[in-house]
Amino acid sequence: MKVYMDYASGSNVDPRVIKEMLPFFNEHVGNPSSFHSEGFKALKAINKAREQIAALINSEPSEIIFTSSATEASNLAIIGGAIRYKNKGNRIVTTAIEHISTINICKELTKQNFEMFQCPVDSSGIIMLDKFEELVNEKTVITSVMVANGEIGTIQPVKEASEIAHKKGSYIHSDATAALGKMEIDVKDLNIDFLTLSSNDIYGPKGVGALYIKKGLRVRPIIIGGGQEQGLRSGTENTPGIVGFGAAAEIIKKDMFKETTRLEKIRDELIERITSTIPESYLSGHPLKRLSNNANIRFNYIEGEALILSLDQEGIQLGTGSACAAKTLEPSHCLLALGLKHEEAHGSLVFTLGKGNNNEQVDYIMAKLPAIVKKLRAMSPITPEELK
Amino acid sequence: MKVYMDYASGSNVDPRVIKEMLPFFNEHVGNPSSFHSEGFKALKAINKAREQIAALINSEPSEIIFTSSATEASNLAIIGGAIRYKNKGNRIVTTAIEHISTINICKELTKQNFEMFQCPVDSSGIIMLDKFEELVNEKTVITSVMVANGEIGTIQPVKEASEIAHKKGSYIHSDATAALGKMEIDVKDLNIDFLTLSSNDIYGPKGVGALYIKKGLRVRPIIIGGGQEQGLRSGTENTPGIVGFGAAAEIIKKDMFKETTRLEKIRDELIERITSTIPESYLSGHPLKRLSNNANIRFNYIEGEALILSLDQEGIQLGTGSACAAKTLEPSHCLLALGLKHEEAHGSLVFTLGKGNNNEQVDYIMAKLPAIVKKLRAMSPITPEELK
C-alpha cells in the first residue's frame, strides 16, 4: 500500500484543474500583452482566475497579484511593503512559528536598517497577543502573522493581531499558504492588508502563488521588467498556471466543507490510535485550534529522520518539520518555539492529509508504525528499558 | 485560415514536453526537499532538467539556477550581480535595444546609486563596439548585451562585448531569451558570466526560466526564503515546469538545425514577397545577422495598431514591438534606436515564426496584407496620393 500524507509539502493537481489548464499549453498560447485575439483570450482567462481567487477570500479581483510562489508573494508583501512604507518606521514584528521563508525574509530586511522582532507562542503554538501588543509600536511598519501553521497545525488569532497592528498604525501581512482551502478566509473580516496565497496547497499547479494587496496600498516591486500585474510583478504571465490556480480556487470553495470534515475524522482517528497505542507519543500544537488536515506527533527517544526513512520503505510518506528546511536536519524552529527541548523536537512526524487519504490508510499506518518505533527505540542508547 | 506568427510573445508547448510534465502534476507530486522517496524522485527530475539545459548551452548543470521567468533571471543577474559586486563600482552598461525588462531593471538600479549607460546601435541594430568600449570603464560592475533581439531580430556581437567587458574588469550578462533554440549558444565560447534563459521560447511551459551563473560567481538573491536553488532562489520548486523546460531543451538541441533552416526559408519568402509587393515597406534590422525566425517589416503611412487589428480579423496574429510593451501603444524603443522617426516606428509588424508555420500561410498573408495596407493608407490623411 502507498500512503502519502505529506500534502503540505507537495500535492497532486486536481484532474479538473489539469483539464482547464491543458488548452493553455497547446491551443491558447497568446501573450496577454499581445494586441490580437489570442492575446485577448489569455488576458480574459487570467482575469477570470483573478475573480475565482478573489471569490475564495472575499476580495476584489483587482486586489490579487499573481506571483510564482507563496514565497515570492511574501517577499513582495514584507520586503516590498516595508520598503514602500519605510517612512512609517523601521520595525518589523513577526512570530516565532512563521514559515522559514517569512523568517528569512524579515532577517533580510535587518540588513537594510530594519529591526525584526519575533512574538513568542504558548505551548500549544498560539501567539501571545499581550506580547504581540508590547512588540508592535508606533515605529512598526509591518507585522506578519500566519493564518495557520502548516507544520504544527495551530490556527492563529489573526483578526485580533490585525486589530493590534492597525491600532499602532502598522500594516499586517498574513501567510495563508497552509490554511487556504482548509478553513474560511475572509480578508474583509480578518481586516488584513496583505495575504500570501499558494496554488499547490489547494490542488492547483506548483509554480504559482498570489498576493492579496488591500485596495489603496502599494508595495515596491521585487521583480522589475515589463510592468505586468499593475506594475507590481513583471514577467510574462504563466497563463496555464494562473488558469489552474483559478480553477482550483473555484473547486475548493465548493468542496471545502465536505472535504475538511472528512479529513478531520481520519486525522482524529490517526491521532487517537497513535497516541493511545505507542507509549510516549504526543500531539504537538493545539488539540482543537488546528488545521483539519494536520497532525504533528512527537515520539520520545527517536530520531525523526530514521523514522521517516523506515516508514518510506513501507510506502508511507510523511513530513518532518517544514519541507523547505527538512534537508537541513535541524530540529524544527516551530517545535522549539513551543518550548520543546532539542532532543524532543527531533523525533516528530508531520502528517498532512489530502484528497488521496482514507481510513484504510490509517489501518496500514497502525500496522507498521508501532513496530518501527519499537525497533528504532530498541537501537537507541537513551531509550528507557521498559520501552525497548 | 489561422496564422499565428507571434511566437516571440507566446508559444505552444511541444506535445512531447507536455507528456513529460503530466506525471509531475498528478503522480510524482513530492517536494524535492522532502525526506522520502517521492521527494527524492522530484529532486532527481529537477537535476535531470538541469543537465538537459546545461547541455544546450555547454555549461555545467550546477551553473543553472531555475527561476519563474526570463525576467526574473535577468533581475537576479543584473540587480543581484550589481549589488553582490558593488565594491567593483557603480556603473552599469547596457544597450539601447535591450528588452524593456532589462532596461527597466537597470533603471531600477539607478535608484540605488548606480549609473546606467545605454550603448547605441547602428541603423541595422548592431551595437557599436567602439562606443561600448568607451562606455565600459574600470568602475563598471556589470554590462548587459543580449544575444539577439526578439523584435528586430539582430544578432549581437556578444563574444566581442564580453572581451571588452572582461578587459575592463566588468562582468557581462546576456539575455538569450529570443536566441535560445534559434542558434548555437555556447557559454564557454561566448565567455559570458550570466545568461538569461526562457522556457516558453523553446516550446517549454510558461512560468519557468533559468539563469546561467558562471562557476565561482555569486549574486545577491532576489527572492528570499527556504534557500532552494543553492540559496540563490527560494520557493518550492515548480517541478512540472522545470521538467518541461528540461525536456524542451533536449528536444530543441536535436531539432534546432533542421527547424531553423525550414523557418528561415519561409521567413525569407515572406520578407521578399511583402517588400516587393507592397510599396514603401521595409525590413528593419540587419538583413543577414538576424534570428532565423524573425521578420520586422515597417509600412510607411500606417498605424501599427490598426494594421494588427485588421489582420487579426482575418485570423492572422502578429506582434507589434515587444509584447510586453505592446499594450502601451508607444513606438518601439528598438526601432527608435535604429534612427527611425516616431511616425516611421509606428507602422511596423513583427513576424516571429515557429513550428506551426508553413508556406501556405505565407500565401494567405499575401492574399490579405496588401489589400489591408492599401485600405488603411487610403484612410490616412498623410498618405501620398499615388499610394492610395
As for the number of domains of chain A, it is 2
Shape summary of chain A: globular
* E-strand count of chain A: 12
Please indicate the percent range of residues of chain A in DSSP E strands (runs of 2 or more): 5-15%
Strand-and-helix sequence of chain A, N→C?
A: EHHHEHEHEHEHEHEEHEEHEHHHEH
What's the CATH C level of the largest domain in chain A? Alpha Beta
Biggest interface found: A-B, 75 and 75 residues
- Indicate the CATH topology of the largest domain in chain A: Aspartate Aminotransferase, domain 2
Descriptive account of the structure:
- The structure is a homodimer of 388-residue chains.
- Chain A is an alpha/beta fold and 388 residues long.
- The first copy, chain A, has 2 domains: 3-8 and 257-387, Aspartate Aminotransferase, domain 1, CATH 3.90.1150.10; 15-252, 3-Layer(aba) Sandwich (Aspartate Aminotransferase, domain 2), CATH 3.40.640.10.
- Helices cover 42% and strands 14% of the residues of chain A.
- Chain A is built from 14 helices and 12 strands.
- Chain A has helices spanning 15-21, 23-26, 37-57, 70-84, 100-110, 129-135, 158-167, 187-190, 239-277, 304-313, 323-326, 333-337, 342-346, 359-379, and strands at 3-5, 64-67, 91-95, 115-119, 140-144, 171-175, 194-198, 209-213, 281-283, 294-299, 316-318, 348-352.
- Chain A has a 7-stranded mixed β-sheet, sandwiched between helices.
- In chain A, strand 6, helix 8 (187-190) and strand 7 (194-198) form a beta-alpha-beta unit.
- In chain A, helix 1 (15-21) runs antiparallel to helix 9, helix 3 (37-57) runs parallel beside helix 9 and helix 10 packs across helix 14.
- The longest helix of chain A is centred in the middle third of the chain and has 39 residues, at 239-277.
- Chains A and B meet through helix 3, helix 4, helix 5, helix 9 and helix 10 of A and helix 3, helix 4, helix 5, helix 9 and helix 10 of B.
